[in-house]
Amino acid sequence: MDIKRNALLALMGLVLATTAVSGASAETLHPRRAEVNERAAHQMHRIREARRDGEIGARKAARLEKAEYRVHMQERGFAHRHHGRITRAEQRRLNHEENHVGRRIPS
User: Fold this and answer.
1) How far is it, in rounded angstroms, from Cα 65 to Cα 60?
2) Cα dihedral 85, 91, 97, 98 sign
3) Long-range contacts of 63-67 (CB under 8 A, 24+ apart)
4) pLDDT tens digits for the chain (107 residues)?
5) pTM above 0.90, yes or no
6) Does any domain span residue 2?
7) Residue 44 and residue 12 in contact, taking contact as beta carbons nearer than 8 Å
8) How many domains are there within the chain?
9) Longest Cα–Cα distance in the chain
């Protein structure tokens, strides 16, 4: 179980590093995509802070990170379909999903 958790955390770190690198190029290419990526990075930070402060356990943190990862992969899929851009409707959908994940993170 601990190995799975460590592997998931390592994967999430890789995703965040990729997001940070691609976020800079996405910002110059498309502001909607940059906004979504910045919000996802902020939510990941909130999850890590809640875990560090003991507000949530490792299992809940892993579930939240996995949900955040799914939103990130969906954003990448949208951008891939539209040559690095996302539509307003896709941005609204991603923001709605971010809202759903964000409500599950203790403040």
Assistant:
1) 9
2) positive
3) 64/101, 64/104, 64/105, 65/8, 65/9, 65/12, 66/8, 67/100, 67/101, 67/104
4) 677 676 666 666 766 666 555 554 544 568 999 999 999 999 999 999 999 999 999 999 999 999 999 999 999 999 999 999 999 999 999 999 999 999 999 98
5) no
6) no
7) yes
8) 1
9) 41
